[in-house]
């Protein structure tokens, strides 16, 4: 298959390498303001990958011509943080072809709905089959431009949903060869809410604010950043997220349980499980508070969860407190600058029954 990968960061590089080493023709695009990795991949003719995936992955094209990348692609992967989804959709909109499969990987907060809306489509429109995954299939970091290390390729606990969900099985059949453990989700609410990042990243970051600022992130985010008290906060966030999911009629499993299934962790606890997790071993903290661990996971996903909770009258005081504290310590108004809401997703005023019917 021809695989288009939009995004050349950690996840995009790992995904492109994996699919290329699985005997697919991979074409990569990124915006010109992010040239380093794309230029290195173009110059080298591919990506060096080490860790759980090893080898040199030949990339057919790496550059800034998005038309060349998405033209006649069997799968278009959109790989980036939540704030990149609209930009990728707008960039490729003139060149997408009817019936193409697009996968926002990971969902990064209702990615399929955001991508669809950015194309100017209604929820009912089926010109393209747009899906999302619950998380990135890899724990990975770029070592240097054109060289990525994959700490872990998920062993399970990975979900995918199309929008509408009637196309989920069709999408699933296209990715099973590379992701044999991937499972169908009920709908995109499940994939969005099953994401672990908003449970982990804000809690660990906020309770290690002084250490991040003092050391520029020179410590191990999980091995040193998680303690019993930090674990208690993560559990409280997870409990509230699960409560919202239950109200919406989708199953979201506790994060440590999913972590064990994925292969990140060997123990399903909120403290020791993360501290000793082989999949998180060696991952350093972010260099500053101005990072996607707050900008994305608070500004987008936690705010969407709050918006859903307010709409359906669910009490989630801990998540609300995290958003307020993150606003104070960063000087950003996460409380009012909600990047994802039911209104922005086209779900405002929708009953629970209609949401599940439309998704």
UniProtKB/TrEMBL annotation:
Residues 2-105 form the Glycerol-3-phosphate dehydrogenase NAD-dependent N-terminal domain. Keywords: Oxidoreductase. Residues 185-329 form the Opine dehydrogenase domain. The keyword rRNA-binding does not apply. One of its GO terms (molecular function) is oxidoreductase activity, acting on the CH-OH group of donors, NAD or NADP as acceptor. This is NAD/NADP octopine/nopaline dehydrogenase family protein. InterPro entries: 6-PGluconate_DH-like_C_sf, 6PGD_dom2, G3P_DH_NAD-dep_N, NAD(P)-bd_dom_sf, Opine/Lysopine_DH, Opine_DH. It comes from Halobacillus yeomjeoni. One of its GO terms (biological process) is glycerol-3-phosphate catabolic process.
